[in-house]
């Protein structure tokens, strides 16, 4: 018996499907290959397709071309069209030796050709070569799948680290301004809802992409990060601020934006932290007003970054329904009236429309993250 490399490799555990409508041809191929491989046979194209899709799935198919009813060309076409069989290599075994016949088979996806009458050494060598190629492709596919999964895992891990880091920074500002409670969680939820609603408008479909919505939502908690730079005597003053104190208080917007800008500049690849540009916009401009009467830059209308216009409404709404030392919490109905009164003066009219369309979501977020000592009406 001809010695075959499969004796010394894992190829001996492979399954081959032999397809031929002539029993004698199946016998010849079987005698050559059975000492080295597990063999399945099919005597028609239809049975070959059924066998290829069933267990044990063949690692390689040796396919006769000239068969009645369904020839080998149709069989390989159907194999390559099916998700579960398209990756099985096929060797044509045929008496046809014209160049155009071989070209047609290779075009349809055949891995190789063996001409009849078959030679044992040729059959064994061609079969082994295709099985080794399939093993290499499978290993590469599995490795690529593992690498893709690992990259995805690392990206998700980095995403969680980013989210936790930003919330930790936001909590630092919150700890200095202990009146805000769950303010950062609520405003983040409000901003996301507004993004989702505005994204329905043709005007914003190319602006509020899923990626940009994620960036805006992720960075919303940093809107008041600049409060860490405000003196306690001003930040925690229980009564009304003097004009001088109010000017100091207003600097928190620029202080926060400058701190984020320095972080961006310290990064070797600023493009890798492009979400921080949204954070900088929000921190600096969420106190701007649609009519230009806000601070710190007095921007007007759409000159105010969209992310800041969203945050402006979310921040004011939450302040209205929350307890402050200078006021009790307002009901959602009263807060909604005040927001509507500010349409076109304080707030972007389209953002107000989005707010009204999603008021029930605002109610749900306010209830979910209600401050424990709140006696307002978040429900």
TrEMBL record:
Pfam family of the protein (one): HD_5
Domain Response regulatory: 15-131
Domain HD-GYP residue range list: 158-371
Species, as recorded: Methylogaea oryzae
GO MF annotation list: phosphoric diester hydrolase activity
InterPro entries linked to this entry: CheY-like_superfamily, Cyclic_di-GMP/3'3'-cGAMP_PDE, HD/PDEase_dom, HD_GYP_dom, Sig_transdc_resp-reg_receiver
One BP term from GO: phosphorelay signal transduction system
Keyword rRNA-binding assigned: no
Positions of modified residues (4-aspartylphosphate): 64
Keywords: Phosphoprotein
Protein name per its UniProtKB record: Two-component system response regulator
SMART domains per UniProt: HDc (SM00471), REC (SM00448)
Gene3D superfamilies hit by this protein: 3.40.50.2300, Hypothetical protein af1432
Family matches, as SUPFAM superfamilies: CheY-like (SSF52172), HD-domain/PDEase-like (SSF109604)
């Amino acid at each position: 018996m001809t010695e075959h490399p499969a004796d010394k490799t894992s190829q001996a555990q492979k399954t081959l499907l032999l397809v031929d409508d002539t029993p004698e041809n199946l016998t010849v191929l079987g005698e050559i290959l059975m000492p080295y491989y597990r063999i399945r046979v099919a005597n028609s194209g239809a049975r070959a397709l059924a066998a290829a899709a069933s267990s044990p799935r063949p690692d390689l198919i040796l396919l006769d071309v000239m068969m009645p009813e369904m020839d080998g060309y149709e069989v390989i076409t159907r194999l390559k069209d099916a998700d579960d069989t398209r990756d099985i290599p096929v060797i044509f075994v045929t008496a046809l030796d014209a160049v155009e016949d071989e070209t047609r088979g290779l075009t349809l996806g055949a891995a190789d050709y063996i001409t009849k009458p078959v030679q044992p050494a040729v059959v064994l060598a061609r079969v082994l070569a295709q099985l080794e190629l399939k093993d290499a492709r499978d290993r590469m596919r599995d490795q690529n799948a593992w690498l893709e999964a690992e990259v995805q895992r690392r990206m998700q891990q980095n995403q969680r680290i980013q989210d936790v880091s930003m919330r930790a920074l936001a909590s630092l500002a919150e700890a200095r301004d202990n009146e805000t409670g769950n303010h950062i969680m609520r405003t983040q939820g409000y901003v996301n809802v507004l993004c989702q609603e505005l994204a329905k408008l043709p005007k914003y479909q190319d602006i509020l992409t899923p990626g940009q919505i994620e960036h805006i939502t992720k960075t919303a908690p940093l809107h008041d990060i600049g409060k860490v730079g405000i003196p306690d005597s001003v930040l925690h003053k229980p009564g009304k601020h003097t004009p001088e104190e109010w000017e100091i208080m207003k600097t928190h917007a620029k202080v926060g934006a400058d701190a984020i800008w320095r972080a961006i500049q310290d990064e070797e690849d600023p493009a890798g932290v492009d979400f921080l540009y949204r954070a900088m916009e929000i921190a600096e401009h969420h106190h701007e007003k649609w009519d230009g009467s806000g601070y710190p830059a007095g921007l007007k209308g759409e000159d105010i970054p969209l992310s800041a216009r969203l945050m402006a409404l979310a921040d004011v709404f939450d302040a209205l329904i929350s307890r402050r030392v200078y006021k009790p919490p307002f009901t959602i109905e009263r807060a909604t009236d005040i927001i509507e009164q500010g349409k076109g003066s304080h707030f972007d009219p389209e953002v107000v429309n989005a707010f009204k369309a999603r008021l029930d979501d605002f109610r749900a977020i306010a209830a979910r993250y209600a401050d424990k000592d709140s006696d307002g009406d978040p429900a």
